UniProtKB/TrEMBL annotation:
GO terms for molecular function: phosphoric ester hydrolase activity; zinc ion binding. This is Phosphatase. The lineage of its organism: Bacteria, Bacillati, Bacillota, Clostridia, Lachnospirales. It comes from Candidatus Lachnoclostridium stercorigallinarum. Residues 5-79 form the Polymerase/histidinol phosphatase N-terminal domain. InterPro entries: PHP_dom (IPR004013), PHP_phosphatase (IPR050243), Pol/His_phosphatase_N (IPR003141), Pol/histidinol_Pase-like (IPR016195). SMART domains: POLIIIAc. It holds the Pfam family PHP. One of its GO terms (cellular component) is cytosol.
Length: 237
């Protein structure tokens, strides 16, 4: 499978990542990516960038080194209603928003509460992607989550970093296999994300690809597998 873009990448601005924006773009170019998204963590993540950082994306060129650049954010879900940690004024300036559950930002709840949090975030018109819905620390009701994603035209992410043995997320392979089986029945468009926190992981999606292949997921429903998959992310509302 040829991967055309990676929308889930982090720079040193996230506070716990190790590469610059330039280094990430260089890696994307070296791997022949058509496009790259920058999605640093929003302010509620300890050590991450403040709101003013995301408000200055007008400084970023739309293409560098032959790679189309899209500016986004990985927003933190702050409560079980799906409230995010950036103002609407800032969110509307983003090309796209990933919304995720992170332990430093929200305590894990029951499967129903965690699912309510993600569905609430999906209803935000700026949210295009739900990040890493695969962690047993945040058990989910996938039979509710998948139809809600389809209804709200939000892509669920198969997160490559979740399969790293050193990841803090728990039982990702089991959980991704479970939700892909349901999503396949709904023909839900999905996205693969590297969640790169160091330059050499930009575009590294090999484990995520294996998971989709094992699930028999239709390639036409994997947004990264074609350039026009970006349309679903950037213009899906």
């Amino acid at each position: 499978m040829k991967i055309c873009f990676d929308m889930h990448t982090h720079t040193v601005a996230s506070g716990h990542a190790f590469s610059t924006f330039k280094e990430n773009v260089e890696e994307a170019a070296a791997k022949g990516l058509y496009a790259m998204g920058m999605s640093d963590h929003a302010p509620a993540m300890p050590g991450s960038a403040q709101e003013i950082y995301f408000g200055n994306f007008k400084s970023i060129r739309r293409e560098l080194m032959g790679v189309k650049i899209y500016t986004g954010v990985e927003a933190n879900i702050m409560d079980f209603n799906g409230t995010l940690d950036l103002s609407e004024c800032t969110l509307k300036k983003m090309d796209y928003v990933i919304a995720s559950l992170h332990v430093p930002c929200i305590r894990p709840g029951s499967p129903r509460e965690n699912t309510d949090a993600l569905i609430g975030a999906m209803k935000n018109p700026y949210v295009k992607i739900i990040g890493h819905p695969d962690d047993d620390r945040y058990p989910l009701e996938y039979d509710r989550l998948i139809p809600a994603a389809l209804e709200n035209r939000v892509a669920l992410e198969v997160n490559n970093s979740s399969f790293n043995p050193r990841s803090g997320r728990q039982n990702a392979r089991k959980n991704v296999a479970a939700w892909l089986a349901i999503a396949r029945e709904y023909r839900l468009p999905i996205i693969l994300g590297s969640d790169a926190h160091v330059y050499y992981d930009v575009g590294e999606l090999s484990e995520a690809i294996k998971m989709t292949e094992q699930a028999g997921y239709p390639e036409e429903l994997i947004l990264n597998a074609r350039e026009d998959g970006l349309d679903y992310i950037l213009n899906c509302r």
